[in-house]
Amino acid sequence: MQWSLVIPLKPLALAKSRLADTAADELRPGLALAFAQDTVAAALACPAVRDVAVVTDDALAGRELAALGARVVADEPGTGLNGALAHGAAAVRAVRPESALAALNADLPALRPAELARVLGAAGEFPRAFLPDAAAIGTTLLAVIAGRELLPAFGPDSRVRHRSSGAAELLLDAVDSVRQDVDTGEDLRAALALGVGPRTAAATARLLIPGQ
Known about the structure:
Blueprint: E1 3-8, H1 28-44, E2 49-55, H2 59-68, E3 71-73, H3 81-95, E4 100-104, H4 113-123, E5 128-132, E6 139-144, H5 158-164, E7 168-169, H6 176-179, H7 185-194, H8 198-204
Helix pairs in contact: 1-2, 1-8
């Protein structure tokens, strides 16, 4: 099964505010872009991924991610994360009506194509499925097979909300790179320990992170 991924990305100037204790204001937009670039590059290198649509209104991010091979979809609803994902899913389905879809976080800088392929393979066994994040509170991936609606419920406690909505929870080991999103300094240290992509490695070289 081949998948189309939808990756939402808020304007870089507003991204990663919870990294304030680790990165200064002027560094966080660059970090957010680096995370997204490494996420998109790894996703496009995954054999199970046909294409990637990034939903964003950030001009710089749009140019950089399009250069990697992503399709950029303007965030026309402007209603937040779940609105952006629903809009991106509709844009993909307008071109590929029978596509299997997966929403993926933009802040997975340690993402490994083989681990993503394993998660997508497992997701294809269910009409709708999700992968919880490393903290077991949120969600990093929500997937639906052809003919099903994405119905994203990202945000606080999204693991509980996705499970309550009927999505199957994927209980997989050895897919840490797909679980490890980055919101805090602790998350960033965990991602660095897994091994991040080249753009994140370059961006974090300017930071002094204990335990890096």
